[in-house]
Write a sequence for this structure.
């Protein structure tokens, strides 16, 4: 299983500005948990940083850790989103997995992360 502790960050050089950072990894691989066959995807991470940005080598190592893991498309996309959200605490984060055709189907899964809001105090 991919360990989010692999992910490293560095200080956002412009924390006072909202700007979009987009990274696409074209060599993502995991395994179908039913058949054991490999699944291939482009993984796009799009976010507006708050205080930190993700370091790309660590992101690559994190994504490569899924190569031998049996996991459904939906689960891996949401796990990547949750792990990056927890590490980066960005203002906004979207993870898109665009899966190569298998069995005549292509799939695109989109997960969004938002900071947890503090509950309002009751009256």
């Amino acid at each position: 299983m991919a360990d989010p502790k692999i992910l490293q960050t560095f200080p956002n050089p412009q924390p006072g500005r909202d700007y979009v950072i987009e990274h696409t990894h074209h060599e993502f691989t995991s395994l179908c948990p039913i058949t054991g066959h490999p699944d291939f995807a482009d993984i796009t991470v799009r976010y507006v940083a708050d205080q930190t940005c993700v370091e790309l080598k660590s992101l690559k190592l994190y994504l490569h850790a899924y190569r031998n893991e049996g996991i459904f498309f939906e689960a891996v996309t949401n796990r990547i989103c949750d792990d990056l959200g927890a590490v980066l605490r960005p203002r906004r984060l979207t993870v898109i997995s665009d899966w190569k055709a298998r069995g005549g189907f292509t799939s695109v899964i989109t997960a969004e992360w938002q900071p947890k809001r503090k509950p309002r105090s009751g009256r």
